[in-house]
Amino acid sequence: MSLSRRALLQLTGTVAGGLALSQLPHAPTWAAKPMAAELDRELKVCDPPGDPLQALLERNRGFSKAWQAMDKEPDPEARMRLQAGIYKSGCQIDPSALDQGQRPWAGLLSCADARVAPEFIFASGSGELFQVRSAGNTAFDEAIASMEYAVSVLQVPLILVLGHSSCGAVKAAMGSDPLTPLLEELVKPIRASLVSGDSLTKAIAGNCRYAAGQLTARSAVLREAQSSGKLAIHSATFDIATGLVTVV
Ligand SMILES: [Zn+2]
Q: What distance in Å separates the CA atoms of residue 113 and residue 191, rounded to the nearest whole number?
């Protein structure tokens, strides 16, 4: 499908402009190769107009309706139709354009839990969401470095830290069951976020806020991007029962 045809059918528009690497205090020495203007436009065809966080939440509301309807629908074929409908108002970028580059419009630091599938719950296609996933959605070094790349090279204007209900990693951090040495490392930052007496729900939200704080506390690139208005960082939780994402 041509760009103009898609532009008529899909939400278009551009999000915040690119980050000037030279303006960053610790600008990385690497950078994206210049991209042809036409390719750049093609890759941005799915960029929602306005606030990218609101766009994620709006898409999620559509997902949530279908998710809840699927729960009440016993017929497998009808369920499949509901599932397919989630993507009805979504957007697609030509694979041939994706083969040449990417221009994601949101970064997600989310849990590895199999029930938290970002493309599904935000009704997004390939090329839209830049993702780092690990159990407990923790801002490990590799996660922060990946987000530095997303923001400074791919010009991603939003990072959303996404936790979820019944998170096993947060439960493990709150518990006292013996863990393997590597799992002990994994829950260490989650434990650092815990507040005594908090419920699991509060602990999950607190862990998201903590991870979001770590992104800027430990990365000058992300801190500078945020303070200059090029980057917004938020945290949210996904409720598995309702399918709804709520900003915390
Ligand atoms: Zn989890």
A: 18
Which of 247, 203, 231 is closest to 61 using CA atoms?
Answer: 247
Distance CA 90, CA 22 (A): 35
Average pLDDT over the chain, rounded to an integer: 89
Q: Is the pLDDT of residue 99 over 90?
A: yes
Other beta carbons within 10 Å of 169: 22
The pair of three-digit structure tokens given for residue 24, joined into one six-digit string: 């960053």
How does pLDDT run across 204-216, given as a tens digit for each residue?
A: 999 999 999 999 9
49 Cα–ligand 1 center, Å: 30
- Predicted TM-score (pTM) of this structure: 0.87
Q: Is the pLDDT of residue 24 over 70?
A: no
Nearest CA-CA partner of 182 in 224, 136, 222, 213: 136
CA of 58 from ligand 1 middle (Å) equals 23
Which CATH number describes the domain made up of 3-13+35-247?
3.40.1050.10
Tell me, in angstroms, the distance from the centre of ligand 1 to residue 169's CA: 5
Element at 235 (helix H, strand E):
strand 232-238
C-alpha–C-alpha distance, residues 107 and 127, integer Å: 11
